[in-house]
Amino acid sequence: MYLFAMLFPGQGVQYVNMLSCFLKKEKIFQNIFEEASEYIGCNLLKLIKEGPLNKINHSKYTQPIILTSSIAIYKFWRKCNGKNPSFMSGHSLGEYSALVCSKALKFKDALKVVSLRGKYMQKVILNRSCLVKAIIGLNKDTIKKICQKYISKTVSIASINSDNQIIISGDKLDVYQASLDCKKHGAKFIFNVNLDIPVHSYLMKPVAKKMENILKKIKIQKPKIPVVNNVDVKCENNSENIKKALIKQIYKTVRWKEIIDFIQSKSVFTMLEIGPNNILTNLNKNNINLISLNTSNKQCFSQAFKIIN
């Protein structure tokens, strides 16, 4: 039996005219987007086809768009009789996609949660400027020490994506200063991440409280396929523990590198990204032990399907 894991992306993978090759020919994509559009009260199909990009990049739209994209690709995979994975995991927002595809969470409930999640996250920046930067080629201990200089917790490690890439986020001026410190300490390359909200930072703590109230009313069941969560790198079966992890995820570091290591430790060496881009696939490209595939277009989907099935 061919073992593989499905990986679901978070914010930052969106672009105008995404999934166009699927949407032109596959009715299942149109149907799922229409269902999501009706629920959100916004024509998501029109939005991703025509933009504008600044609206697509607005969290309250981005999050439902990415969730719906991943669910549509997964449903198409299953419609083609594609195998189910040994594990699922989602980067940040992608954890909701994984929970839907593992049948722990209903699609309409996930849409409700992520649209509010996006809305509340966007509100954080109403009275402050924020920045998200990727630090390439500097170890996490050095970056952690730099972030700890900001005793008011205005700079946080948002995500440890790989040995080579760590994301910091928070207050704009402080993140900028922290990135200069990283450069001084030997970072090879630093670039802005396409996000204007301080993802997975201490500044998101108020949003976590709101998410707790929302998730109280949502039913979550035991996943049919194990889902490795972001904050504990664990596969939880208990509804309350899954919810606690989703709440903490808002302001805690995404431990993506450890998630990939955990999946590998279970003798799973093929990773399939279920989304409209290949960002998670690219993070794995330096890992010689992994086969990394994606489903960002028809050609990539077909290639992955042949290898896995």
Keywords, separated by commas or semicolons:
309 residues, alpha/beta, Alpha-Beta Plaits, 2 domains, five-stranded parallel beta sheet, 9 strands, 14% strand
Give an overview in words.
- The chain is an alpha/beta fold.
- It has 2 domains: about 5-120 and about 205-309, 3-Layer(aba) Sandwich (Malonyl-Coenzyme A Acyl Carrier Protein, domain 2), CATH 3.40.366.10; about 130-195, Malonyl-CoA ACP transacylase, ACP-binding (Alpha-Beta Plaits, 2-Layer Sandwich).
- About 50% of the residues lie in helices and about 15% in strands.
- It has 14 helices and 9 strands.
- It has helices at about 20-25, 25-40, 45-50, 55, 60-80, 95-100, 105-125, 140-150, 170-185, 205-215, 240-250, 255-265, 280-285, 300-309; strands spanning about 5-10, 85-90, 130-135, 155-160, 165-170, 190, 225-230, 270-275, 290-295.
- The strands form 2 sheets. The chain has a 5-stranded parallel beta sheet. The chain has a 4-stranded antiparallel beta sheet with strand order 4-5-3-6.
- Strand 4 (about 155-160) and strand 5 form a beta hairpin.
- The N and C termini lie close together (about 10 Å).
- The mean pLDDT is about 95.
**Helix/strand order:** EHHHHHEHHEHEEHEHEHHEHEH
Instruction: Identify the CATH homologous superfamily of the largest domain.
Output: Malonyl-Coenzyme A Acyl Carrier Protein, domain 2
How many H/I helices?
Answer: 14
Overall mean pLDDT stands at 95
Tally of discrete structural domains = 2
N-to-C terminal Cα separation, in Å? 9 Å
Widest β-sheet, arrangement of strands: 7-2-1-8-9
Q: Residue ranges: pLDDT <50 for 5 or more in a row?
A: none
Tell me the CATH architecture of the largest domain: 3-Layer(aba) Sandwich
As a whole number of angstroms, the C-alpha radius of gyration is 18 Å
* β-strand number: 9
Basic shape: globular
Which band does the percent of strand residues land in?
A: 5-15%
User: Structural class of the secondary structure composition?
Assistant: alpha/beta
Helix content: 40-55%
